[in-house]
Design a protein that fits this description.
The complex is a heterodimer of chains A (313) and B (259). Chain A is an alpha/beta fold and 313 residues long. Chain A has eleven helices and 14 strands. Chain A has a six-stranded mixed beta sheet, with helices on both faces. Chain B is an all-alpha fold and 259 residues long. The chains are: A alpha/beta (313), B mainly alpha (259). At the A-B interface, helix 2 and helix 3 of A face helix 1 and helix 5 of B. The complex binds adenosine-5'-triphosphate and magnesium ion. Adenosine-5'-triphosphate binds next to strand 2 and helix 1 of chain A. Chain A: Its main location: membrane. Chain A: One of its GO terms (molecular function) is ATP binding. Chain A: This is ATP-binding cassette domain-containing protein.
């Protein structure tokens, strides 16, 4: 059973003094899949990655990565993982080529692997410049190249595209897709919900050090239902539209005066678009557009974390 | 080649490459002791009771040892820079020997120190300092200098790894230039007040300096001093052994431990 999971963790705990960064984190990442860890600042994503890549010892709990026990066989784990941390982990004083050749040497990979990766990540032209002179995107690509030298079975990426322009982001995404095409397992953290939607087979929402929700992107969206939405001709008609939505969905609608839009979440599968339109029309709402649409991951995220806050309050 | 030797040589290579990129800083590091030698040799040399030429022959071994003692500062800067700039995180996730990172740094430091002593020796020679012992003794003196450099580098690496920031390491490292002032490297300790004399004579720098002066045949071993100074070769070797035996494993453990 365990061999089918590239990452399997149970009850991971980590404290930094008074901060309880991980509170029993459980993860199960099937081999060859992409797992997206999604969470707000301070949720514990980086801590989770650092524990799973042998950089931090957990206070409690256990994990197997690439088939090896994290605590008992850290060296075996290191043999099979690649890591791109949240912050640059190359030597800024060395050139890109020197960096990759150094890591290739330490990994007993052929020297040609460095040149191959520089070429592949579009760094050949800047290969002989010190890495600290690179742009953010170049440095990110160098970091990623460094973590691919040994062709790892499990790749950990901590916010791989934060601060990158759309073009560089797409390049990284393509690279991740190509790797998973070859069977590499990827665990990535991100604050971009679109990124998780694009890349991840499974998403784990991390909140306060534990997995608050997990599922495929579609499942997560289904878990919070659909948005029933009405766009009206005149902002003055918004309250009337809101009253109808409130009655139909049982949740309080959100009003956007500028866009003359009212929207409310519903889990009611029997609410159909014709009925929504009929009810709004019957109430005399000057409707210009209406719809039932799945939420974006942003909405999922805000809603699932907000729900917890109201429960705690 | 064993994993340790192979990984250590890779890390050593990295440090030498870094040095090539930062050669201006390296040149400055190695010029400082020469400037000190000229300054002390002619400023103090003309103010002390000892004749100037005699003082300058006395001073050269002191500056060689003070330069070796800079291993604390250099080791600290290097280790603090690496641990606060992320590259060490990558090393820690690689299946490489844990000892190779501190050892590679120390080995690269030994090579550059050996090269850096040459200008100091040449300027010392021009100032009238000579090797007056046997060639074997002189070889022993150079060996002891490098052994002491290795020992102080081990101390520095631990302090650097344990430092909270590069700035903190910089400040503490800068303060280590005081250490040779509290020894017999620049002036004889005979006339120091009692407690200060005790501190200075138990400073490892004093034992090493006395041994180097003795082996080069520059100055006799002072009498009535603390044990490490009156038995300088054995005393300084024991000092080095104790420092290495304590701080090298400690530094390796500190590097390898997961936070
Ligand atoms: N070395 C440390 N010492 C003290 N506290 C820490 C340390 N590392 C992390 N923390 C704390 O643990 C919590 C989780 O931090 P972590 O970096 O894992 O969050 P994150 O989800 O990666 O956030 P971000 O999106 O900002 O990167 C935070 O409250 C953080 O302040
Ligand atoms: Mg983070």
């Amino acid at each position: 059973m365990t061999s089918t999971y590239a990452v399997l963790s149970e009850g991971l705990e980590k404290r930094f003094g008074a901060v309880h960064a991980l509170r029993g984190l459980e993860l199960a990442v099937p081999e060859g899949s992409v797992c997206g860890l999604l969470g707000p600042n301070g949720a514990g994503k980086t801590t989770a990655i650092r524990v799973l890549t042998t950089l931090l010892a957990p206070d409690a709990g256990s994990a197997r990565v690439a088939g090896h026990d994290l605590m008992r066989e850290p060296r075996e784990v290191r043999r099979h993982i690649g890591v791109t941390g949240q912050y640059a982990s190359v030597d800024g004083d060395l050139t890109g080529a020197e960096n990759l050749r150094l890591f290739a040497r330490l990994l007993r990979a052929p020297r040609s692997r460095a040149a191959e990766l520089l070429e592949r990540f579009g760094l050949a032209a800047v290969a002989d410049r010190p890495a600290h002179t690179y742009s953010g995107g170049m440095r990110r690509r160098l970091d990623l190249a460094a973590s691919l030298i040994a062709r790892p079975r499990v790749l950990f990426l901590d916010e791989p595209t934060t601060g990158l322009d759309p073009h560089s982001r797409n390049e990284i995404w393509d690279c991740v897709r190509e790797l998973t095409g070859h069977g590499t397992t990827v665990v990535l953290t991100t604050q971009y919900l679109e990124e998780a939607d694009q890349l991840a087979d499974d998403i784990v929402l991390i909140d306060e050090g534990r997995a608050a929700h997990r599922g495929t992107p579609a499942e997560l969206k289904a878990a919070i239902g659909n948005y029933a939405q009405a766009v009206v001709a005149d902002a003055a008609a918004l309250p009337a539209a809101a009253a109808v939505l409130d009655r139909l969905t049982g949740t309080e609608p959100v009003l956007d005066v500028e866009r003359r839009t009212a929207a409310a979440i519903t889990l009611d599968a029997t609410l159909t678009l014709p009925r929504l339109v009929r009810e709004l029309d019957a109430a005399g709402v000057p409707l210009v557009d209406a719809g039932l649409r799945p939420p974006t991951l942003d909405e999922v995220f805000l809603r699932l974390t907000a729900r917890k806050e109201t429960a705690a309050a | 080649m064993s994993t340790l030797a192979y990984d250590t040589s890779a890390v050593l290579g990295r440090h030498l490459q870094r040095l090539r990129h930062a050669s201006a800083i390296a040149v400055m590091t190695h010029t400082m002791p020469v400037v000190f030698l000229l300054f002390f040799g002619y400023v103090f040399g003309s103010a002390l009771a000892m004749p100037g030429t005699e003082y300058r022959a006395f001073l050269v071994p002191g500056l060689l040892v003070a330069t070796a003692a800079n291993g604390i500062m250099n080791g600290m800067f290097g280790a603090a820079q690496d641990s606060h700039r992320g590259v060490m995180d990558r090393f820690r996730t690689l299946p490489m020997s844990r000892a190779s990172v501190p050892l590679g740094q120390a080995a690269a430091d030994l090579l550059t120190t050996a090269a850096g002593l040459i200008p100091l020796l040449l300027v010392g020679y021009a100032m009238g300092w000579r090797i007056e012992g046997t060639p074997l003794q002189a070889l022993g003196a150079f060996g002891l200098l490098l052994l002491f450099r290795f020992a102080t580098t081990c101390v520095g690496i631990l302090l650097g790894l344990a430092s909270r920031s590069e700035e903190a390491a910089g400040q503490l490292g800068g303060a280590t230039f005081m250490l040779p002032l509290l020894s017999n490297a620049y002036i004889p300790t005979d006339n120091l007040p009692g407690w200060l004399r005790t501190v200075a004579e138990w400073n490892p720098i004093s034992a090493v300096t006395t041994a180097v002066r003795d082996l080069f045949g520059n100055a006799p071993v002072p009498e009535g001093a603390a044990w490490p100074v009156t038995h300088p070769v054995l005393g300084s070797t024991l000092w080095c052994a104790a420092l290495i035996a304590t701080f090298l494993p400690w530094a390796i453990h500190h590097y390898a431990k997961q936070g």
